[in-house]
Write a structure and sequence with these properties.
mainly alpha, flat, 0% strand, single chain
Length: 320
Amino acid sequence: MSKYILSRLLQIIPVLIGVTFLVFALLSLSPGDPAQMILGVGAKPEELAMMREQLGLNDPMIVQYLRYMGNVVSGDFGTSYTTKQPVLKMMSIRLPNTLLLSFGSLFLILIVSIPLGIMLAVNQNSVFDNVMRVVTLVLAAMPGFWLGLMLIILFSVKLGWLPSNGLESVQASIMPLICLSVAGWTTNSRLTRASMLDVIRQDYIRTARAKGLPYGRILRKHALKNAMLPIVTSVGMAIGQCVGGSVIIETVFGINGLGKLMVDALRQKDIPTIMSGVIIAAVIIALANLLTDLSYAVIDPRIRSNYVKPKAQKPKEARA
């Protein structure tokens, strides 16, 4: 198992290289002059030329990329073009808000979608199942930013119950967490329902019920565990959606997080800030995928046996 974990960790390196190179190339080819944005519209041509030379913008793109990644490996994420502050310091201030928003919404997805999916499977084709099928389809069709604006109008402007921006209190975090969790609720609840329906129709579930075991215990101890593999896969994908979706939600609710910082950096073509945000997001998503794969081995012994080396049997003693 340790060799498998090490190999998966090493696989993160080419993923990071591919993602960062693609983003760096797109930023380099996109219109806009960072030197012009730093010095302003009234800068003289000789000042712009000096600033481009200072930033290394006159070098070929591959040279700029290798220089930047070499600095990142040594712990230097560069200095922001717009704020003139170290990017790592800016990220350390804003990253906790993004992590709180992302993993808080993931927690809500787990505690809502899995029990809801089990209830839908147990009450298949009932009124509750049919109503929730329509509700989940409607919620899945709502864009997160539109839902956020509607919640702000209702609960902040009309009723005045909740703050419309920030993440400083529990009340302020309610609407952003709901907006970021809705997509996960709809997807995971329907997937949990389908996976549970497939399991509870198996013969061993019928046998357990025939033995007189309580139905709730059968669902918890037998059905849910065997239905977890597709659910774990969906949860692993939800982590990436939560991290990526925080960019929009932070902008809508004015949260001082990593997503809002990247949006502001994109407007100014602040390449060091954008690249640092991409690297952090890519590392979080890659680690989430690794944890998802490791969860398979914990849940299913058949998968775990592929990575655990069997114990060597002691040779039998020779008969006298």
